[in-house]
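Entry for the shared binder. Reason: the reviewer on the internal report wants the predicted structure included alongside the sequence.
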Amino acid sequence: MIPYGRQFLDDDDVNEIIKVLKSDFITQGPRINQFEECLASYFEAKYAVVFNSGTSALHGAYFALGLKKDDEFITTPITFVATSNAGLYLGAKPVFVDVEKDTANIDCNKILENISKKTKLIVPVHLSGHPVDLERIFQIARENNLFVVEDACHAVGAKYNKDKIGNCQISDMAVFSFHPVKHITTGEGGAVLTNNPEFYEKLKMFSTHGITKDNLKNFTDGDWYYEMHYLGYNYRMTDIQAALGISQLKKLNSFIQKRREIVAEYEKAFSSNPYFDIPIERAYAFSSYHLYIIRLKDKLIDRKVQIFRDMRENGIGVQVHYIPVYWQPYYQKLGYGEGLCPNGEDFYRRAISIPIYPAMGKNDLSYVIETILKIFKKYE
């Protein structure tokens, strides 16, 4: 089975992990700070804080910005549930705004009408690695005294108007994921980038039980003394993961180049096909193509289940990204109903993610292209 995405590890990655396993620290050691410094440097932000997952990184970001019970935050329904779940953890309410029909990114034209007195954050998602229109979102946010948290879990290596996603020049924070299907991996892991020193300090403490040994308020004892200022969590990354992340980050540019080479082949093969639409890339965007999502044309929407099954039966590990978050039973119990975001629901009915990952060889790529076209011809 050719998966829709997977990690790429080489001997350099393995050797870096072995070095940590043979060292004095396999967690809470020097590799954590080193990885954070590497991330901040690469993405041109002042600070980076690593977490044990993208989900915990989102949780930390929302906490650091003061999201709390009965607050509201605006986001998109076409994302993994973690984007909104992280706000629920803090007692806040997600407000889902519909998406653009082609990119499935949040529709900037519909944000303003969903802002209320309770709104605190706007959380756009760079779906599949294609950046949202950040300048417009940041302008709306600042005009309404709101924070912007980029859910950039899909967008490691992407750019907005030639600026790296993650530099936080027109957002307050950006959140990355290092899951194995993402651009670089630490096994499980994530990070928050920011340029604000106050947010940075809160993120650091939140990831380790709310505890600090710096800037102590009531220091009276010896060097063992520490203080807990927040109800934090054990969201720490290990040195094993950080070492892998440092090694993977060195390969990020080549990983993105490989993904875009695969996209070029898909565009050559699929650009004029009568069965589905292919992803677009706006003038302001440099997509890092975490996903390659095709969208079925009207005549084939009702055949999606069978098409999906045919692809898997022929060895192509397709997936669907995503079921609208508010369709989930848990969200239905919270009072969300179908029909809330028509474009998002329509996108879901059409979307199929086909394979794209750096280790994908020419033979696999050719097989995917030929097999997909062969399958769709059955439905003419």
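Summary line for the report: Residues 77 and 89 are 17 Å apart (CA to CA).
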